[in-house]
Design a protein that fits this description.
Layout (H helix, E strand, L loop, with lengths): L2 E7 L3 H16 L2 E3 L8 E6 L4 H17 L3 E5 L5 H7 L5 E2 L5 H11 L20 E5 L1 E2 L10 H5 L3 E2 L2 H13 L4 E5 L14 E4 L2 E4 L2 H9 L4 E4 L12 H5 L6 E3 L7 H7 L5 H14 L4 E8 L6 H14 L3 E6 L17 H24 L5 E9 L5 E6 L10 E4 L9 E9 L4 E8 L11
Helix pairs in contact: 10-11, 11-12
Length: 447
Amino acid sequence: MSGKVGFVSLGCPKALVDSERILTQLRSEGYSIAPNYDQADVVVVNTCGFITPAVEESLNAIGEALEENGKVIVTGCLGERPEEIIKRHPSVLAVTGQADIAGVMEHVHKLLPPDDNPFTSLTPVKLTPRHYSYLKIAEGCNHKCSFCIIPQLRGLQVSRDAGDVLYEAYRLIAGGSKEIMVIAQDSSAYGVDIRHRESEFQDKQIKAHLIPLVTELADMGAWIRLHYVYPYPHIHKLIPLMAQSKLLPYLDVPLQHASPRVLKAMRRPGGAESHLKTIQQWREICPELAIRSTFIVGFPGETEEDFGLLLDFLKEAKLDRVGAFSYSEVPGAAANMLAGQAPEEIKQERHERLMAVQQSISLAKNQAKIGCEIEVIIDDYGELPGEVIGRSKADAPEIDGKVYGTGDGTVKIGDIIRLRVNSADAYDLEGKIVGQVPWRPSVLSLA
């Protein structure tokens, strides 16, 4: 055995995928994964560096690992700013950047040389439950949003070949994943950087473009959920696949604001009028489409009139899922230099008003489902006998609502069931299990 490595994974699903790849490489070289600090010969902390609270969380996690173990290698987005880590924690063994699997392994090797003939595990390490997986299709981002430093942290967009992505999806589904969540910083722009070149998948040539990629994914028979999609014109071609139940009727579209003036300061495209038109067109094709979005309140220079435009947009758009964040400075972001930085009390007050508006919308949408039957994928068991907790097709894990169901106790984690909704609040649904949905993927099962 090569040694025991502890691991702490922080940040977004894209970072989670990086953690899975590092852990898989460790396992393949004979290292075991320690369940706690005490049993670890070294600890790897995969950090987030996107916004100030995430940076502080990462620095605190590094400090905890140093205190509990003493031997720490740091990687991830915050690792792109090593001086910030070293200033707070000069005793870390090494710092590498995001997705730097080779760099992490180099420093692990220095401390814990691998065995000459290690027992290698070829099974990929997953940090999500067996029944769902994240599928990263690209690294980095080409946008120049004034509030964001992702291009500095993760570089410009680098897309994977479609064949590589599709074979990974095939393996995940064959291994038991019933839901695949497609992720990138901008999934809509997938393949632009490699000029949508073709690659082989099962004796076919598939272009590195979101439409043919998702069309192939849809044919595998799993739930396919799309995240971080910009409302580019070609996204319109995906909506019929949702109407035909080939894709989940769900889009995660990070709109950020509705005021043209604020969006211009953010260096973001669009505005309320264009977004409303696009949403209307999508819903005409697929009425059951659930749209999630995120918004920033208290952006520098945001006036009460700008904020009012955002509230008006929400009332008209009636989005299904909304997350809101109070603006916070990110070291190195261009927005830090903008005039009109809002006081914290203004940010908080606007955040509360926005969420109050959205909660009334979400409550009405959820209560309209009472009496309906929906499909639910089960993530966990509840506290009561026969109770299970899952998600509808309109709910992504960790960020959206939950569905609580009661049945005869035979339902297992990972099952997909039919549930009749009996009650609802602004976030969650509750109901009775009325049946199970057969799982028939069109891939050869390895499970």
